[in-house]
């Protein structure tokens, strides 16, 4: 049975509260769904994490992908950005244990296109490989931004004092950072 709920932090009580208009008997067990969230969002919103959370992702910034392409001398950037933004491919750019999201893959492939390929950009929506050159440059773009993120992640990991006390916020944050490292390493492997 689904019910409508209101949930949020109550400033007056200092607690996270969930209210429903439905009636339940005293001491009844009531279940809620937090939804499909990665551990970062679960920790920030609800104060806990899940081991081996299948929803864990690493968020990739669109500007980091653009900067990676620019650093490799990619041309026709304005036209490519126009296509990417008109189609909303610049949203939901993530890496997971399965590699790059479809949108992230599309963005790197569009940025790697030469002018002739760009005229037929919709072919990438079918999974069509434009050319060996496009595939190679797309992977170089990905390796460039992944290198930056892996370095940042390594720097972050070294800031933690180990061993950590279990079930503390610090240990949960460290676990998230380690998961991000694993995601980045798996994604790196997929583009080399």
UniProtKB/TrEMBL annotation:
InterPro entries, alphabetized: SET_dom_sf, SETD3_SETD6_MTase
SUPFAM superfamilies: SET domain
Organism domain of life: Eukaryota
Record-level Gene Ontology MF annotations: protein-lysine N-methyltransferase activity
Cited PANTHER family: SET DOMAIN-CONTAINING PROTEIN 4 (PTHR13271:SF151), UNCHARACTERIZED PUTATIVE METHYLTRANSFERASE (PTHR13271)
Protein name in UniProt: SET domain-containing protein 4
């Amino acid at each position: 049975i689904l019910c409508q709920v209101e949930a949020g932090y109550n400033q007056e009580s200092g607690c996270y509260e969930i209210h429903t208009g439905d009636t339940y008997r005293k001491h009844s067990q009531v279940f809620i769904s937090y939804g499909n969230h990665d551990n970062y969002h679960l920790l920030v919103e609800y104060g806990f994490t899940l081991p081996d959370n299948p929803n864990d992702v690493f968020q990739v910034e669109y500007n980091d992908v653009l900067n990676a392409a620019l650093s490799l001398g990619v041309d026709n950037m304005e036209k490519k950005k126009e296509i990417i933004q008109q189609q909303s491919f610049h949203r939901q750019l993530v890496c997971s244990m399965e590699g790059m999201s479809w949108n992230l893959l599309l963005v790197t492939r569009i940025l790697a296109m030469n002018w002739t390929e760009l005229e037929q950009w919709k072919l990438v929506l079918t999974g069509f490989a434009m050319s060996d050159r496009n595939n190679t440059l797309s992977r170089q773009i990905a390796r460039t931004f992944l290198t930056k993120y892996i370095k940042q992640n390594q720097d972050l990991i070294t800031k933690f004092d180990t061993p950590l006390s279990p079930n503390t916020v610090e240990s949960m944050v460290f676990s998230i950072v380690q998961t991000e490292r694993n995601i980045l390493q798996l994604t790196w492997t997929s583009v080399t």
